[in-house]
Specification:
The protein contains five helices and four strands, in the order H-H-H-E-H-E-E-H-E. It has a four-stranded antiparallel beta sheet with strand order 2-3-1-4.
Amino acid sequence: MALDAIDRAILTELQKNGRMPNATLAEKVGLSPSACSRRLDALEKGGTIRGYHARVSNSALGHQMTVIVHISLSGQFQTTLRAFEEAVRRCPNVLVCYLMSGEYDYILRVAARDLADYERIHRDWLSNLPHVVKINSSFALREVIDRPNVGIDPELA
């Protein structure tokens, strides 16, 4: 779906405030409420807008630690990857999982309450994922940036 300047303006405003009423959004982007609603519906149906949610602080929920985990598997066969991915989706502390090129097969971002909690996650979840042969964990010292989305350039249309 090609985005024009109005679509980009809508997306920019929604990234600032996803709970904005349609009438307010329409006013901000220079459309009538009905035209804005049609645009928004098209952005949702076309998959540009994947959903709406509240960004909840992990630390507010007691998860003070972020761990970056590099995982190597026994091979990259389709059945191996599929089994690993199905299992890792069930781990509630895994926030993000990427299939990678390079030295490791997957990189995960994991939330833990503390070191003892991460030890539990490592022992009970990560070590039991299918086909895992190596786990390398790095502990984040401080979060510098955590953007939910890339910025939208209004000049690209």
